[in-house]
Hints:
Blueprint: H1 3-14, E1 27-33, H2 36-53, E2 56-62, H3 64-74, E3 79-84, H4 89-96, E4 100-105, E5 112-118, H5 119-124, H6 131-136, E6 144-147, H7 154-165, E7 173-176, H8 180-193, E8 199-203, H9 206-210, E9 213-215, H10 223-229, E10 247-252, H11 253-258, H12 260-268, H13 273-285, H14 290-300, H15 302-305, H16 311-316, H17 318-321
Parallel strand pairs: 1-2, 6-7
Antiparallel strand pairs: 3-10, 4-10, 5-8, 5-9
Helix pairs in contact: 2-14, 13-14
Amino acid sequence: MKLKHLIAVAAMALGFGTTSAKADCSEVSITEMDWASSAVVTYVSKFLMEQGYGCTVQLVPSSTTPAVASLAETGEPDIVTELWAAYTPAYFDLKEQGKVVELANVLVDGGVEGWWIPQYLADEYPELTTIEGIKANPELVGGRFHDCPDGWGCNFTNNSNLKASGLLEAGIERFQHGSGETLATAIAAAYEDKAPWFGYYWAPTSVLGSYPMAQVDMGPYNEEAHNCNVRDDCETPAMSSYPTAIVLTVATTSFADEEPEIAELMRNVQFTNVQMNEVLAWQDSNNASYEEAAVYFLTNYKDVWGSWLNDEARGKLAALLQ
C-alpha cells in the first residue's frame, strides 16, 4: 500500500480530504535526506503532520552539510529530521547562537559507523580486519575504499582517516559514490560475486542486516582527532574510530516557537535501531520505496506512533489506530 493510498484510506475513514480542511498549522518545510533511515523518518513525519495536525508539508531534498548551510544562510528548512550532528561543526555554532533547537534523539540508540569488509573476506583473511593487514595486502580488498558521497559529513572524516592511516600510500584508492544507493549496491554486488570490498557504512540500515560485514579495527576513539577530522580544513588528521553517533531531529527556534504542537510531535518521533532495521530490511526485501517503507511502519507500529500524537491528532487518526 503506497502512502497516497494510505492517505486516501484515512481521508475516507475520517471524513477529510488529502489535506485537512482546517488549517491547524502553517506550511512546514522538512528535509528529505538521501539515505534510507532519514527518508523513513521524513515520510512518517509528513503523514502525521498532514493527517493528524492539518499541516501542509514541503519536502526539501538535501543532505547533511547543505542542510546545515541552508539553516545558517536562510533559516530554512524548518525541521531537519535526521541530523548526524558530529559531522557538522557549523550546527553547534547555530545551536550556540540560539538559531536552532534540538527536539529529539531520533535514533534513540545512536548511529553506528565504521569501516567494513565482507564477513567471507574476514573469514578467509582475518588479518584484513586491521589497518596494518590491509596496508600489507591492498589487493585483497580490491585496492579501493568505498566512501560516502559529497555532502555527507562522513566525507571529511573518512578522507582525514585515510590520510592518517597510510592506506593511500599503500595503494588504496578512495572512491566516492554518488549516492547512498550506489554505496549499498556495491556491497550487494560484492556479495553476489564473493568479491573484495572495503569501505564505510553505518547502522541502522538494511544493508548490514542483509549482508554480514566484519568491522575493521580503526583503533581507539580519539575525541581531539575526530573533532579535527570532521572538518574539511583539518590540517593535522589523526586516526580515530567513530564514536556512537548522536542523531538528532532539530528545528529552527523561530519555527518551534510558532508551532509548539508540531515541535512537541517531533520531540516524540523516535525510532530504536531494532525498529528501523526491521523496517529497512522489509523495504529491501520487497524492493519498496521510502514511502512504502513509511506505510509499513505506520501499519505495523501503531502502538509506537500512536503514543507520539496529542489527543486531537489521535482522534483524527483513530480509524487507523484500530
